[in-house]
Amino acid sequence: MSFSFEFTLLPKINQSIIEIERVRGFLDAIKSKATWLSDMQNEVLTIESHYSTHIEGTALTLNQSREILEGKPVKGIRLEDKQELLNYRKALDFIGEYLNKDIPITDRLIRELHRITVKDVRGNQADPGNYRKIQNYVINQKTQKIIYTPPPASKVPALMKELVTWLNKEKEFLSPILTAGIAQIQLVNIHPFIDGNGRAARLLANLILYKKGYDFKQLFTISEYYDKDRTAYYRAIQSVPLTNMDLTSWLEYFVEGLQMQVSKIREKAEYIIQSELLIEQLKSFKLNDRQETIIGHLLLKGNIDNEECQKICCSTKSIANRDLTHLVEEKFLEKQESPKNILYILSPIMLEKIKDIKRQRGE
């Protein structure tokens, strides 16, 4: 058995896929220091965790989410919001284990994604890892009106089996990008769980992309795109049942969103390239690994303080202070003091070197 759907491969969809493939090729050609790449990945995974849970109603700010995932105490927040955020980040780490692994997607795997996502939240009323046994509904949060009635609970196991069977069939002429989009919307349509369906669907789409080598070095966040304009997101989802499973509008939205988000990755990748070229030019100054990491971090974030320096370099306060002081004395950094904190930024000399690198690369 297989579920039925149709879509038209519009020129706009095809062009977005081509652009996504270009960025993918560009990223595959980049070799970078693991410490810098890991720093960027952690930030992006934080952003994805924040926005995906924010779509579902958490009230955390991005900065609060960042602090929670860094293990810092955050006051004045709902414990449920914190747990949902931590769960989602754990789920992202879970699917990260499937990078470039052509392992079949199973019913059990999808249910495990759900279990991780909703564990210990809302009194466990979402029945983590189990399909619903009751009818559920999609409600407009503003009007409280039912906008979609999913299939009866009795049909869920069979519908999920159909989806899993389809996902594991070899599809010669279908881009993994479209496969991910189709899987996401079908899981939303089935709504197999009492709660957490949107998160599970977004994670499933990411899992499919990861498995097929479309992880983009784990530097993209699709949920940010959804959360920035939730009206457009919900409209795209609702277009499917309204058109009798014609996925064209949804796939146009999904692929365009992915293309917009991965285009931002190219900008991040440029920082990696600039960092490596800049560090290569500074080899004669015999900077240690920590000091190189500090400069790489500044290219990405713009500033740094002692606490952040300790974190990214795995050092103590005194060692971080020594490294930062040395970089200031050698004119690599400048110190910016305020009543609350001391920040360090790249010096004008370093900024000029970066401009030279860009000119040499024809940017």
Spatial order of strands in the largest sheet: 1-2
SS summary, helix count: 15
- Name the assembly state: single chain
Estimate what percentage of residues fall within beta strands: under 5%
* H and E string: HHHHHEEHHHHHHHHHEEH
How many β-strands, per DSSP? Answer: 4
Number of domains: 2
Estimate the mean pLDDT confidence: 88
Which consecutive residue ranges, at least 5 long each, have pLDDT under 50? none
Quick structural overview:
The protein has helices at residues 11-28, 34-55, 62-69, 79-96, 107-118, 156-167, 176-190, 197-211, 222-228, 230-242, 248-281, 289-301, 306-313, 317-329, 348-360; strands spanning 138-139, 146-148, 333-337, 342-346. It has 363 residues and is mostly helical.
SSE map:
Elements: H1 11-28, H2 34-55, H3 62-69, H4 79-96, H5 107-118, E1 138-139, E2 146-148, H6 156-167, H7 176-190, H8 197-211, H9 222-228, H10 230-242, H11 248-281, H12 289-301, H13 306-313, H14 317-329, E3 333-337, E4 342-346, H15 348-360
Antiparallel strand pairs: 1-2, 3-4
Helix pairs in contact: 1-11, 2-3, 2-4, 2-9, 2-12, 4-5, 4-8, 5-8, 6-7, 7-8, 7-11, 9-11, 10-11, 11-12, 13-14
Report on the architecture of this protein.
With 363 residues, the chain is mainly α. It folds into 2 domains: 11-266, Fic-like fold; 282-360, Arc Repressor Mutant, subunit A, CATH 1.10.10. The chain contains 15 helices and 4 strands. The strands form 2 sheets. It has a two-stranded antiparallel sheet. A hairpin with a 6-residue loop joins strand 1 and strand 2. Helix 4 runs antiparallel to helix 5 (107-118). The longest helix is centred in the last third of the chain and has 34 residues, at 248-281. The termini are far apart.
